[in-house]
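Sample entry (146 residues):
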Amino acid sequence: MLDELCDYANYVPVIIAHFFNKPIQNSELLRKLYLEKDLSSYEIHRKTGWSRTSISDALRELGIQKETRKSPSLCFGEKFIGNKRVPHKGEQKVISKMLELRNQGYSFKRISEHLNDKNIPTKLGGSWYPSTVKDIVKRELKKREA
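Predicted structure, serialized as tokens:
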């Protein structure tokens, strides 16, 4: 089951040890799966049979962390080119319009109504809600402050 995870023979002893131990006792294997193979704790659970709780506890106890977390989905204003996130120019124009309207004193509700009236689609093609506009505006202002 784990043979496809290991590209090199020097990991074979680690894999053999896996079948007799818990994740906390297999820090090398856990590190390889979580960091090098970029698997989630759920994916590690499915591949190894270890409980998700024991995987999470071991990651915490061993101090194994990924440097950056990936957002589960693209934010409004982003798109993928290959596997890289880049600005979505069309959506960036909508964000600029949101900020402009906000600077003119529009409420988040009024901005969402304006976007819906102009038939400007959301990321998934739905309707705009004040909370969505608020989240996007706050995220954008936070980015600009940094």
